[in-house]
Amino acid sequence: MDKQLVPNVQATDLSVRYRQRGPVPVGNAVSGVSFTIMPGETLAVVGESGSGKSTLASVLAAEGDLDVPASPRITGGSLSVLGTPMRGVSNRRRGRLQSRIGYVAQGAGRRLTPHLTAGESIAEPIFLRNRRFGQKRAGMIVATLVDAVRLPLLTMNKFPYELSAGQRQRVAIARALVLEPDLLIADDPTSGVDVTARPAIIDIIKELQKDLSFSAFVVTSNVHEVQHLTERVLVMYHGIVVGRGDLEDVLATPHHPYVETLARTRNLDAPSVEGMARVDAG
Length: 282
Hints:
- This protein is an alpha/beta fold.
- Helix content is 33%, strand content 22%.
- α3 (118-129) runs parallel beside α5, α4 packs across α5 and α5 runs parallel beside α6.
- The radius of gyration is 19 Å and the shape is globular.
């Protein structure tokens, strides 16, 4: 089989839940979800809070089945990420897999280590993988990424408190891409960013995906962002998929009230991503 035809992500009837913390049974956070992401493809996942989209992102990022209460657990179906079955994955295989995944967790820009400069934060994954990696070479890699996410090179020497929310989010994206991953997972990457700076964040992900050819799984609650980012969409509601396929087709023939709401939202006079001003300094 042609290697290019093998999906980078294959989910089949996937169900995920969190550990029970008290006497009340815990229901599935994700129930019976199936989808694929081929090499170089971008899939956007849309849903309101509590729809299971962030849980799905966490499991794809190999953050599931950890021995901590907050870790989601695969309880049904199957999930393969970059050729690795995720159900019951060993810690060794998990570590190897995570080096091939760039994960921008929700609020990643707010979680940057405060005592590290932006350049040090971006470079940190390089030295965690190889402590003997050359400082000069790492600096060149970081500078290239800083430029790619449309930040001035002087940003490398600034601390998180000196940056805007949009700039911190760009640093988080650069950090996620510093090891040249095969898969980028971005969980609501524009959350907490000023509305005028959000289009630039989406543009950056779209342009870098095109330039670097990684697959991407992008979580959002904004249909306008999806419209600008990709044609492929998965719509989730209370842990299940209520719409999938080409965005235009999904919105044109909604089969669920939430999808109808998305379609109405898209047709409102609210500014689309394309029409909003690009603010590179935000």
